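Quick one - inputs below.
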Amino acid sequence: MNTVCLLQVFSVTCFVLLSQATAKNSEDIRCKCICPPYKNVTRGKIYNQNVSLKDCNCLHVVVPMPVNGNDVEAYCLRCECKFEERSSGTIKFTIIMYLSILGLLLLYMVYLTLLEPVLKRRLFGHSQLIQNDDDVGDQQPFANAHNVLSRSQSRPNMLNKVEHAQQRWRRQVQEQRKSVFDRHVVLS
Amino acid sequence: MTCASNQCFKPVRHSSASLQCLTPVPHSSASLQCFTPVLHSSASLQCFTPVPHSSASLQCLTPVPHSSASLQCLTPVPHSSASLQCLTPVPHSSASLQCLTPVPHSSASLQCLTPVPHSSASLQCFTPVPHSSASLQCLTPVPHSSASLQCFTPVPHSSASLQCLTPVPHSSASLQCLTPVPHSSASLQCLTPVPHSSASLQCLTPVPHSSASLQCFTPVPHSSASLQCFTPVPHSSASLQCLTPVPHSVPHSSASLQLDFRLLPEGSNYVMSNGGGAASSSTHLLDFLEEPIPGVGTYDDFHTIDWVREKCKDRERHRKINSRKKDSAWEFTKSLYDAWSGWLVVTLTGLASGALAGLIDIAADWLNDLKEGVCLSAMWFNHEQCCWTSNETTFAERDKCPQWKSWAELILGQAEGPGSYIMNYFMYIYWALSFAFLAVCLVKVFAPYACGSGIPEIKTILSGFIIRGYLGKWTLMIKTITLVLAVASGLSLGKEGPLVHVACCCGNIFSYLFPKYSKNEAKKREVLSAASAAGVSVAFGAPIGGVLFSLEEVSYYFPLKTLWRSFFAALVAAFVLRSINPFGNSRLVLFYVEYHTPWYLFELIPFILLGVFGGLWGAFFIRANIGWCRRRKSTRLGKYPVLEVILVVVITAVVAFPNPYTRQNTSELIKELFTDCGPLESSQLCQYRSHMNGSKAFSDNPNRPAGPGVYAAMWQLCLALIFKIIMTIFTFGLKVPAGLFIPSMAIGAIAGRIVGIAVEQLAYYHHDWFLFKEWCEVGADCITPGLYAMVGAAACLGGVTRMTVSLVVIVFELTGGLEYIVPLMAAVMTSKWVGDAFGREGIYEAHIRLNGYPFLDAKEEFTHTTLAREVMRPQRSDPPLAVLTQDDLTVEQLQGIINETSYNGFPVIVSKESQRLVGFALRRDITIAIENARRKQEGIVLDSRVYFTQHAPTLPADSPRPLKLRSILDMSPFTVTDHTPMEIVVDIFRKLGLRQCLVTHNGIVLGIITKKNIIEHLEELKQHVEPLAAAWYRHKKRYPSSHGANGQPGSRVHYVQLICSFQDGDDKEQEEQEEEEEEEVCLLDDSSL
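Output:
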């Protein structure tokens, strides 16, 4: 239930941040006109202008006009104008969030793979490590039932719970790693 | 006047005091007084006084735990009295008084004053003569105590009373009366003032003038009191008085008074209470008070769910909610919430998958452009967004703007020249390598299940397989993060398949918010079906295509309700993605195109040729990729996933950079290939020769001769085609998130574009041919190479995945034109036919088979004439079936059977002699129930008898308390007879989603057929017919690690393992046979006891 609450809080925060970030920015609209070569204008041209939707046509966007006089209309008929809109706030928010999550994950990965074994060895010596290995191999059917029951019963305090959840997650990942990378029973 | 007295003052533990009286003369009295103050002592008094007016009393004053006192009276003459007084004030003591006094006017009383938890007191009376009275008074003031009084007094005027004064929670009191004669009265008084207590009084008195009363004074919620009477004759009275002071406003308290007037002959009461085998609900009525064991009904990892059982469970839950609906406003709200939860969960899933797809799109685009350079003004913009308002007006310079700096510009300070080219080349490889390395490391450290496409696994999960953690939070997060990295690294992979996985993770996570879905695996799969539709919807911007994809490709069970919900989820997801607008083009996908040119009938020939190409490519790809994956799985190659990814990505980057068509993002490549050459196009592909002669060329827009740019592009495209074909084979299956749709489409699009340009040039140079003369006048634009690219993409995708309808709809939604349905259909159907000619299964089925998942394909037909007898286990040569008997096993024997075998379930039979089927019990449920009983129920030891019947079997007097496992017994297992054709059995398994099926002959259990057996059987038959299909050599000498250190099979990986192990050779099979033999010996020994 706690995770659900956390999830909700997280999503609400995200929503608030997102709605702030996506506040309209005048830079975020453009009218893009693509004009093909025409008569003495030998190369195709692309024009971008920051104008509103109703002004999005060749006459407003293509400045300076490469042709003059009577040819303007003919030239403009060939141009294709598209009104485009983006949300730079969303992009910024997304990229920053993505990078921060990626950074956190990388830090955690470095901690798990490099620092933690060293710390553990220094703090507890070898006995702890050996014990941990034993825990993983516990696969008897009744031990399994034991796990199921204790999961539904025990209500320890917050810290224990976090610790317990982390241990369980680790064991799960180890199992997954075994079945994917060592035994190749799934996802090969 | 004899008297025997025994006084014990033994102060030390493990002592026992017994007094056996065999005094045959009346008026004798025997008393045993114990003052043993130390633990584990036991006192028993057995009286065999056959003459009246004798009295036996046992007084225990043992103040320390784990003591037990029992008094057994066998006084056959009236007017005798037996009393047992316990004053054991410490937990875990038990007191039992069994009376077998057959003569009237005897009285038995048991008074317990045990004030500490976990004590139990039971009084069993078998007084068959009237005017006897039995009373049990409990004064246990602490939780978890239980008191039961069972009376079997068949003669009138007897009375049984049970008074409980247990003021603390979790106590239970039950009084069962089976008094069939009138004028008997049974009363149960409970004064339990605290929650979670339960009191039940069951009367089966079929004769008038009997009265049953149950008085409850439970003032707090969560208590339940039930009085069940089956009195079919008038003048009986049943009263249930509840004095719950907060009636009906506090949830979860329930008082039920059920009067059943079904008249049944005497002696058949048991049958009725068994439920008769018809409806499972009536069983649950009587098992109501048996506290549900947590964890029963769930599944182990790598096991198959039982659809039938899950659906039954859901219907029952639904019925319960519906029946309570009218009780109160609260219940009504709850039922509304329940009814809406299905829509709510798909809405949430759609929202989340749309948002995640937006995140993935934006981040992947940005990261992909990071390989080339960086936006200095705002580093979170990709190339396109960076130059959003820049006014570089010419086509050639459209990609250049001052804010965007390539790496060479930043590092070397020069944008042109060989130095900067090499610098850019180097940086490209460097970024690609580091992205891929990060991706594979994250996958390996945090969530190994996040690798691959995910669609084969999701297909298997939807068909009813459990892979724990496959749809979990970490998998979701890592898959989302690493998918971006993998796509950006430039590997030949796409994000569409993984997006389906991501959406399914969302569906799974949100279904935990709703008990309707979190507790029922079958219902959860409905949500997952809808989620996969949402995944495809955001991947291709095709909501309808997504629904059809879910229906055609991934789903196993797809009722109409799920169809609507899938549609809704797909809609919501597409809407969210549209409002995020990740590409800035108001479209959901990058390669959205719009054509307006018509197509001509003769073009069907090249389209069909493209279909043939797609089919060939699909067949070749499946062969090659499966071969490579098998190699990876079986050789040392699989040991180095990180190294493999690094190698592949370096080769990809080194080869891809020089060719502009492979350097760019695959989605962009597809977009470029799809887009038709208009006047506004500037790419090399559109450099037709008419460009040279000025502006006039565009006025009538004819087919033009190809210029040197087009020829150069052709060469590059051919090289890109070969490169993509080779790299995709090696990429799909890497340990990073990798989808298959985009590379397949790219290959098809390249081939299609090449064909399109070839046809176009053909039409230009040979416009006098019969074909072209009809439709293509000179100077008219009749060939659209972009359309060919699209048809080619669809054909290749169809060849690989063997999808038809959904694929056409997806592509049609990509283009938004109904006009091209016929070319697409022609190409896709051709590619499916051609592909099927080389091998019937698509890439996903092939991967499912490679991994050995228990997936029963609904599309395959079963045409053989085998019988159920030939497929069932055990076969003639095998040892006999492992079965449980319904009431003569002990806990120890049961544990032995479970430890020694690896079967996931056991048939329960009446006895070794009759062999008739009673039901089916699952291994996991048995282990959980035993473990649970050990913890919560008192007196369950290794010697305890296990029974699956409604009532305990008659046991010898000194045996420990029996363990009832009826609640975990499936009393309606699916059975077929041994002569049922396998055709029908396979159909039953497919349509009902069974997990196992028992084979009977004249009601006697012969064997069992599991899903695994059927898949093995199909595989066997297939190998007989077409031996090239699958070589199982890879299993040789492998999987030792599936067994634990002691050689015991690990329970976790069984389901997958066993499928493989069947083919795998003799050694393991022998091992299993030995196990089975051992177990058989045990069983036989037990039955002889």
